[in-house]
Amino acid sequence: GVGHEQQTFTRGIDICGEHKEGLGTVVWMDTEGLFSSEDARSAYGPKIFSLALLFSSAVLLNNVKVLSEQFFTFFSDQQQIARVLKQGLASSGLPAEALLPGNLSVFWVLQQPIRFEGDEEA
C-alpha cells in the first residue's frame, strides 16, 4: 500500500493493468523504495528498479529528499544495465521495440513529509 509516510510499504514489485479506451492496456508498476533503510539491508531494490526500467515508457520518482549525486550515478548505472540486458534479449530474438523505449520519460515528485497534530514521528 502507498502511504503518506517515509516508510517503505511496497516489497518487490506490484503490478496491475488498466484498459484505457483508444490507448490499450496501461500497466502500472510500483517498486520498493531505493536508498531506504530497508533497501540498505537488501540488494533487491536496484535489481527490481532495473527490471522496471526495461518495461517502462515513463518513470515516476517519488522521493522525500532532494535527488543527490549518488542517485544520478545510480540511475545512470541502472540505465546502462538495462541497455545491456536489452541488447542480450534482442540478440536472443526479442524485438528491440518491446523493451526500454528510446524516449523514456522521467518525472520527479518531491514529497514534503506531512505532520499531523499530535503526530510525534513526522
UniProtKB/TrEMBL annotation:
It comes from the Eukaryota. It comes from Alexandrium catenella. This is Guanylate-binding protein N-terminal domain-containing protein. The lineage of its organism: Eukaryota, Sar, Alveolata, Dinophyceae, Gonyaulacales. Coiled coil: none annotated. It holds the Pfam family GBP. One of its GO terms (molecular function) is GTP binding. Gene3D superfamilies: P-loop containing nucleotide triphosphate hydrolases. Residues 9-70 form the Guanylate-binding protein N-terminal domain.
